[in-house]
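Below sits our specimen:

——
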Amino acid sequence: MENRIYDENNGLWYARQGEYYLPELALPPEEEKPIGIWGQRHLRYLKEHKQLVYLNLLTSGRLNEYLSSVDEQAEDMFSRLVKEYADRQEVTEQLKAENQILWVQKMNNIRACVREVVEREIIYL
């Protein structure tokens, strides 16, 4: 018996483990995309609360691509909202030059608020 077989019906490779053939679900290194903090948070959410979605993405081989996309969307939204909130609250480079402590306090508050928005809108959906 062969150690590896390919199933043309589902496009998966199977490796022999004892008497059984188990699917090889790891992506080739060239297909892996980096996943940032937002994608990792969404992955944890999927594993804990949306197990069926997680398993479907994992077995179809689309999990890495999906998490990379979620990470990119969340990072774009985070950056855009931080800039918008800072503009609205007049947190400028001039404030940074004049009063660094106040600037840091306001920026930390803005980032915390935006993080909650991104988590509610994208990560924990």
Observations:
- The two ends are 45 Å apart (CA to CA).
- The chain has two domains: 1-26, 33-123.
- Strands lie at 4-7, 12-17, 20-23.
